[in-house]
Amino acid sequence: MMNNIIETHDLCCQFNRIKSVDKINIQIPEGAIYGFLGPNGAGKTTTLKMLLGLLNPSSGSIKIFGEKMPTNRISILREIGSLIESPSFYGHLSGYKNLKIFASIYGLPNSAIEDVLNIVELTPHANRPVKHYSFGMKQRLGIAIALIHKPKLLILDEPTNGLDPAGIQQIRDLIKRLPTLYNTTVLISSHLLSEVEQIATHVGIIHGGKMLFQDAFDVLRKQQTSYLIIDLEDPSKAYQSMQKTGWDITVNHTAISIRLDTPGQKTKIFECLKNFNIINVKEKHRSLEDIFLDWTGVKKEV
Amino acid sequence: MLFNLYKLEFKKIQWSILIFLILLDTIINASLGAMFMKSNSWYFPPSWSELYIQSLSFHALFFYPLYVGIITSLVCFYEHKNNAWKQLMCLPISKTNLYVAKFMFITTLLAITQLTFFIGYFITGWIIQPPGKLDVINYIIYGILGWLAMWPLVALQLWISQKIKNFGRSLLINIFLVLPNVVVATGFPSYIAAWFPFSLSYFAMYPQGSVLSPDFHPIFFWSIAFFTSILYFYIGLTYFINRNWN
Ligand SMILES: Nc1ncnc2c1ncn2[C@@H]1O[C@H](COP(=O)(O)OP(=O)(O)OP(=O)(O)O)[C@@H](O)[C@H]1O
Ligand SMILES: [Mg+2]
């Protein structure tokens, strides 16, 4: 059985009586790339800050690597690399000197600095003061700081924010390599399903401080379905006859809608409906994006 | 680990700003000391100790306590800017060690400031050659006592500085608080003034036995200094350990 790297129990966080995070139970198995998905203001950053001990939970408990946070704060943090919201560093110092500060805290040799500069492709800019970096370069430096000690757990809060498409691709490839490269478990937050879809093995969907869904990504993928929407002259009659044969079906005053589990079912449906006057047939796909938007209550414009 | 964090502070600080501040304090007070000694020479005959008293007033009443505030803000400023606190707090370092390292670093910078002030005084004296004997040991003691007397203020400022993100605002607050010092330190007896941490170095550094010497009660004074240091440090540290880092 795989161990959970992160486990929270009914984690809550409250700001001025408003619950920003409400009874969250996160479980992240070892070696996973866990996409923490939610719209703006869902409580992603707040949750990640509690995991890192930056915010005190108002109730609930956290276990990381099987140890209690914040009781064993220092030994847990030794194995975590993180980038929360915008990257932070000393603007008047060069990229190299910034990394040097972190390297000396972890007790790492200079070669670790050069390695990580190479990984994020900042080597040519290593000796410029960070305040002269572009936004994307700062973001890369932030990721470099998070990776410098080859952590067992990497926590990234919307890491591709502000990166160009090439940069996004590069970070994505890097994150995908991490589990095999350093045996790192990754927790990455995002408000874009498409981004999580491309890298995550596991997913947690948070909305309004509550966890709506959490499982392997493939389980979420299975929620995708297609519907056949059939306009009929007499939909209610068709509904009654189809329902008896066990279809997952809904009806309104012009059409019936039938859930398709396999494409081959279409012929069977037409067979059943051969005695009805079909006006029009449409197939509608309910994509992950639709599911996500349904769950998070933001309706897509038609 | 503590020593490691202390060393890191040296790498972060912008030495150009600091050297400018320290030289400013030294040069202004050495010049004022020489000038006032000359202009007051009719009432107070020039001597090494007269030069000291004239240089000291402005340093101990205004510059030194102000610098405690400025240096403390500066030492926290790099973390406030760009929100580096957040990054620092995600590192495997003890919060207590980090806080103590900052405290030690600030007192180190203040020791350098104090040392430079005395070097300025010695050089000025060497140039104008006032009559009388120079008792170096005495001045070393004043220097150390004046430095120790600022510890309660360092503890207080470190508590406050972790809250105030804006360096300019912090500077303004400090100037505003240092100004009443002229009244507090020169007008009140030490056991009252000692509760106002800005005034302490003036009492500790002013030689006793002259007409203008402040009303000084060493036992009360140092007890209050010790007690308030511990109190402010404890409150500041507890706040630092338990606070949220947004
Ligand atoms: N320091 C704070 N004081 C008061 N409310 C806060 C504070 N920090 C966060 N919140 C509230 O908590 C909720 C969750 O915020 P959080 O930053 O965790 O969202 P998020 O999921 O990271 O959103 P985004 O995608 O915009 O980054 C929001 O409603 C926010 O207003
Ligand atoms: Mg956020």
From TrEMBL, chain A:
One of its GO terms (molecular function) is ATP binding. Residues 6-233 form the ABC transporter domain. The keyword Transport applies. It comes from the Bacteria. InterPro entries: AAA+_ATPase (IPR003593), ABC_transporter-like_ATP-bd (IPR003439), ABC_transporter-like_CS (IPR017871), P-loop_NTPase (IPR027417). Keywords: ATP-binding, Nucleotide-binding, Transport. Pfam families: ABC_tran. Belongs to the ABC transporter superfamily. This is ABC transporter ATP-binding protein. It comes from Polycladospora coralii.
